[in-house]
Each structure stands twice: as structure tokens, then as C-alpha cells.
Amino acid sequence: MTAKLKIDRLIGELSYPFYIFHLFALMLAGLLLQTPRSIVWMGLGLTLTLSAIALALEFRFIEPWRVQFAERQAATSGIEFAGSPDFQSP
Questions:
Q1: Cβ proximity of 14 and 47 under 8 Å
Q2: CA–CA gap between residue 79 and residue 90 (Å, rounded)
Q3: Would the CA dihedral through 36, 41, 42, 48 be positive or negative?
Q4: Measuring CA to CA, how many Å separate 9 from each of 5, 15, 53, 70, 77?
Q5: Is the CB of residue 41 less than 8 Å from the CB of residue 25?
Q6: Residue range 14-60, pLDDT digits in tens
Q7: H/E element holding 10?
């Protein structure tokens, strides 16, 4: 059951970057390729690749900064902060 939840979580995390990059990837594939089928496959591959890179960058750089910012805000306002459920601060 846990593996299924991790897959569901990954799909959910990739959905927004996928939405953001899909049109750009399809347009780029359309410029580079001629047949509709190859445009779709290249667009899909490019979209998934860009989405995965964006998500990795978010987890590596943005999420730690967001957690630290929230911890500082909570400390100054006297609120207890539990942190992100998926992020382990170093």
C-alpha cells in the first residue's frame, strides 16, 4: 500500500510542472519534427524530462528555503512549526 501511495504522490507532484511545460514541449517538437506521431512522442518525452528536472530543482533548492522561511516566521510569531512532512532539514 505504501508503494502505491508514493506513486500517487509522485504523479501528483509531477502534474503541475507537466501542465506548465507541455505546450512549450509540443511547440518545440513541432518545430523540430514533421510527422504528428513523432511530435507527440517527442513532446511527451520532453515534457516528462522538463517536469522531472523542475521537480528535482524544487526539492533541492526551493523546498529547503521554504521550510527555513516558515520556521523563522513561526519562531518570530510564537507558533510551533512541524515542518514539511517530506523534507528532512540537514
A1: no
A2: 22
A3: positive
A4: 6, 10, 16, 22, 31
A5: no
A6: 999 999 999 999 999 999 999 999 999 999 999 999 999 999 999 99
A7: helix 2-32
User: How many whole angstroms separate alpha carbon 38 and alpha carbon 44?
Assistant: 10
Cell of 21: 511545460
Q: Is the predicted pLDDT of residue 84 greater than 50, yes or no? A: yes
Q: What is the three-class DSSP state of 57? A: helix
Distance of alpha carbon 28 from alpha carbon 17, whole angstroms:
16
- pLDDT above 70 (res 66): yes
> Which is more confident, 10 or 38?
38
